Every structure is written in structure tokens, then in C-alpha cells.
Amino acid sequence: MTDGHGTDAVHRALILAGGGLKVAFQAGVLQVWLDEAGRRFDHADGASGGVFNLAMYCQGMSGRQIADNWRRLRPLKGVTPNWSEYLKGPYAASLFTLDGYRRHVFRSWGLDWEKIRATDRVATFNLYDFSANELEVLTADQMDEDRLCAAVSLPMWFPPVVIDGRTYIDAVYVTDANIGEAIRRGCDELWIIWTVSQRRRWYNGFVANYFQIIETVANSRLQEWQRRIEASNAAVRAGGRGEFGRFIEIKLLQAEVPLNYLINFSQERFRQAVELGVQTARSWCVAEAIPLSAPVASPPDDGTCLRFTERMTGTVAFGAADPGAGPAPGDRPGEDLSVHLTICADGLDRFLASPRHEAVVSGEVHCEALGGRRPVESGTFNLFVEDSDPEHLRMLYRLFFTDRAGHPLTLSGCKNVSEDSGHGLWADTTTLYTRILRGHLGAGEEEGAEVVAAGVIHIHLPDFLRQLATFRVRSDTALDRLAALGRFGQFFAGRLWDVYGQGVLAWSPI
Predict the structure, then answer these.
(1) Do residues 138 and 166 lie in contact, with contact meaning Cβ atoms separated by under 8 Å?
(2) Contacts of 87 (CB under 8 A, 6+ apart)
(3) Average pLDDT over the chain, rounded to whole?
């Protein structure tokens, strides 16, 4: 086969590992790998939540179609409490059923089992046959809705599925990525999308313990396969056959996805997870030197504009490079600095879904040592940006202005939102660590730049209360404006939960 770019390719496997509803991220990756990178696969395997995407893949959907299905997912449509079992208390069959997925979600995704069974794509689905105590691997032509449900039926949460007198459950405790099946089918390049958390942070509570056990099983199995493949490859390089008789390459795309495995009530969360998958996959492809075609054009902005004002005051020390250090002994005392900003997010859908959550900033910087009140010529604000850990978020400010002599300056500011900071939610979200840099500099140009001054400015309580009264929304109707404010508030509260509420429930359900 070829890789879509006219070159010979190895036998390539697509491994759609489980991860509960975190596999919405996986769908974003598929949009890039299948459509923009044009990758084709000799074999595809799905386990646990990954079978949802595998079914759509087998049906012949494009990566964008799979991703759009998750973008449009209404999670409450899939929630069906198993009311009839609740009176049984600890002997209940399950807390929920998959009836909502059968009636609503699968239909909205357009799953067509005749097309899936007739696919020309080689694929395997993993179920656990509890009656035989063994993993059952089924090809696409053997699949139907009952078996798809069986493949995601986590004990306690969903009842097992009985098929032909045999009891089936989710295979996650045996495998969350059937790497062995791909190798047995002759694949020697394994493209794995991994969304099971690898943070290794233990939280108390029954729900947290349940999923931490799954993380223990899934991650240890993945590491075991990695070690086996590494040992086999070493033997092949040394001139031997190794365990697998050929060189096996793992191409792993792993991410911490800020989405609960099961407990999610917000459509917004799924859109954000998909877009995070798209952005992560594009960066991954660049790092792997995989060429990408032009992405499908995004839909136009929804026309909703959210704006609010913010005032922060404090001091900066000229000649200092560390915002938290203050003036050095013998230096002149810190100079007063304040900013009065208007933040405008045009296209609320885009702002909330994009991992950068970027808005435009206007306003003024006030510092007498720099010439008094200086207008912001242009600026950006990024709300709750994550790097590698979604529990550590940053609010980023970048303001371009000039001093009284016309010299270009950049105010680069960061609020660190982290439970590990030791300062608490209020201090984290109202404290801006600020540097004034020489020149108009982008984020990638700061290293080695001349620091004119550095310090800390704050939102004080009276200013915060005034800020709450400045929120305005431009939209067609009063109801739309109210809904937009609610969506922003839900997003803001949810991301704070992600940082400070992990002990209650890993990742906000809203």
C-alpha cells in the first residue's frame, strides 16, 4: 500500500485505544490523520470507548465526519438511569443503561450496521466473554449494535450484555489497546491514540478509585508491550529474530484530556476535547515530519461577541527580570503600574472550543515612568491555556504599546492557575506576573529579550465587583445573550473545577 503521498509504506495499524468518553479527543486526531495527513491503514483495532470511533471508521466516514459527530454530541441524550435496579441497592445490575445511546446517540451518528459489516477496511473489535473468561476479538462483519454496547459495558456503570446465552463486558481489564492483534496481522508500524490518564495522581473516593484501577491496568499493559517491542527490536538490530521476527515501530500520540471518563453533561466539553485532538495531532505530525494538506475550512463565527473590562494595579521594578523578586537592594523603589483593559471574544463558539481561548484586548497601560497613560495598540488575551497538564492552567496577556519617546514595548503577563501554587483560587486568578519587554514581541520571541521592568499587579476586590457588571454580549435576542453569558460562566467554572475540584471528581462534569 501507499501512504497517500505516492511513497511505499510499511504495514500500518491504527490502534483506537479506550478511554471512556475521552475518545472525543481521539476523533479530533482522526480528522488530522485520515483527512489532512491522508494516512491509510492496513488494520484498525478498537477497545472500550475506542470502538465508537472504530465503528464510524468502518462505515467509511471521513475523519472530519467522525469528529463532527462528537462535536454535535448531546451527552444528556445518552444518560439513562437504570431506575428499576435502584431499589436493589448494592445488588443492582448497574447505575445506568446504554438505552440512550441506542435510541439517540447512535442514530445521531448515523451508524449503519449493514455498511459497517460490509466494509472493506480490515478492523477488529475487542469484547470480553465473561462466560468463557477470555478476550473475544471480532471482525467488522461480525459486529452489531448489541456487540458494540457489550464492548463498552463497564461493570457497575452499565449492565453486561447477554448474547446467545453468553455474558459480555468491556475488555478494558484485559486490554485497552490490542497491540498483539495488530502484530499478529503483520503490521509493523503501530499508530496508537492514547487518552487514558498517565498523571499518576491518586485521589480518594469510590469513583476515583474505580477509574484509577482501570488506569493501572491499561497503562501497565501498554508499558509491557512497549518493553517487549523494544527488546525484540534490540534483538533484530543485533542480527537476531527477536520475539516478533521483525522491527516494530510504535507511533504513540498520548494526551491528558480534561474530560471525565463517563460523567459529562456539557456539549461544550466534547467540542473542546475534539479541538484539542485536532491541535495536538497537527503539532504531532509536524514533529514527525508528516506533511499535512490544508485543513477543511472552519465554519464562520457564530456572530456572538462577549466583552468585559478588567482593571489591575500594582508595582514593577525597573531593571528586575523576575516578576516576583521585587527591587534589588539599592535599586529605586517599584513604580506604580496599572492596566485598564477591554477584552472582546468575537465568535463565542470559536473562543470556547479553541484550546488557546484567544480574545482581542484594547485599553491602556498607565505607568508614569513610561510616559503616563499609554494606549494599547494591539493585544491578546488567552484564557485557561494548558501546556502538558490540564491541572495547571495559565491566563496570558500580551499588550503592545509605546513609551513617551515612541519606543515599542510589550507587556507580557501570566496568571498561574494551579492547585499546587499554595495561594488558592482567588490569588491565582487575580495575580498577574508581569514583564515589560523592549520591542513588540510575540510569545516565541521572548527568550533573550531585554526586560525593562518586572513586577506583580492584581485585581482587587472592588475592581472585581465592578468587572462583573461590565459583561456584555452582542447577539440577536435577549435569550441568546443570556445563553451566551451562561455558556461562558459554565466554561469558567468548569475549568476552575478542573484545577481545584479534582478531589471531588476528576474533571468537571460541566
Answers:
(1) no
(2) none
(3) 94
In tens, the pLDDT along 335-391 reads 999 999 999 999 999 999 999 999 999 999 999 999 999 999 999 999 999 877 788
For residue 485 the three cell numbers come to 453569558
Question: What's at 9, amino acid-wise?
Answer: A
SS3 sequence of 63-118: HHHHHHHHHCCCHHHHCEECHHHHCCHHHCCECEECHHHHHHHHHHHCCCHHHHHC
Please tell me the predicted confidence (pLDDT) of residue 44: 98
153, 256, 257, 347 from 19: Cα distances, Å? 13, 11, 10, 31
pLDDT at 300: 73
Candidates 341, 310, 307, 306; CA nearest to 464 is 310
Q: Calculate the CA 190 to chain-centre distance.
A: 22
Closest by CA to 370, choosing from 413, 330, 339, is 339
* Residue 181 DSSP class: H
Residue written as cell 501512504? 3
Q: Is the per-residue pLDDT at 140 higher than 90?
A: yes
